[in-house]
Amino acid sequence: MTVFDRSVRLQADPNVTRIVLVALVVTAMTAFVAAQTPTAKALPLENLGLEHLDIIVPDTAASARFYSRIFKSVLHQQPVRDTLRYFILLGDLPADRQVGYIAIGAAGERMPAIGHYCVLATVYDRAGVASALQSAGFGVAAAGPTGMWPDPDRLELQLFQPPAGLVTAAVPSTLAVERDGLLTPRGVDHVMLRVTSIEKSLPYYRLVYGQSVERPRDANGRVWLQLARNTRLGLEQAAAGQPPTISHYTIKVAPFDRGALETRVREAGGRVLPAPDEPDVVRFADNNGIIVEVRVAE
Fold this sequence. Notes:
By secondary structure, the protein is α+β, with helices and mostly antiparallel strands. It has helices spanning 3-12, 14-36, 60-70, 126-135, 198-209, 258-268; strands spanning 47-57, 76-80, 83-89, 101-106, 113-121, 149-150, 156-160, 171-172, 185-195, 223-227, 231-237, 245-253, 271-273, 282-285, 291-296. Helix 3 packs antiparallel against helix 6 (258-268).
């Protein structure tokens, strides 16, 4: 039997025809289903809560000394160009280095401020986030994995996908500090964002975090976004003449003696501030005027 004869017999065989038809149908259905299956959306984020924040100051060593008198923490440091960046850890440092922190960086010619805050996400699709924000008319981060995402007022968000935590270049500090901190930190509680217009900012924050995290305005007119791990972002309206900024941050701590803390803040060069809008916190300005709050962890 020739090859041609064998081919003719196979084509004429009804069983072979059925097999070929079934294979074609299965292939076509698989392609159709794949085309109809939506890809995972980059936004809103499946957030894992606030991880760290960054402050910028004229003298990083003086700031590290101040915070070492407030918080019980093993101070860490990292060389950055011609300065040292310090880290106040907000918990014990585990082997995987997954711990929150306050980073203290050099301000250079800038005024002391809270520079950025960081949120972790289950999946961080940088290209997808950029596409979604651009499509909605918002700005995007600068190039590179650590680029900051600006909100409509250019307040900066940093995003990471675990593993994140403390950078491996940060090592226990050799800076001479008193190491007599009073408070045992438990992580970041919230960051307050002072924006020029809450109404104009909300579309951005709803896109990034989803509408399900948004809470009704409180008695002070603030909008709260309830993130994972019992962390929050607050949006507050800037008063006339006030610039947009990250106005304060709050750290969760173990129970403490309020009077002893207020005395320590003053001894270390800070100022205790009234907090009628948040009566469950102790609010103070650090040695550079940056506003900090502490509250007992729930």
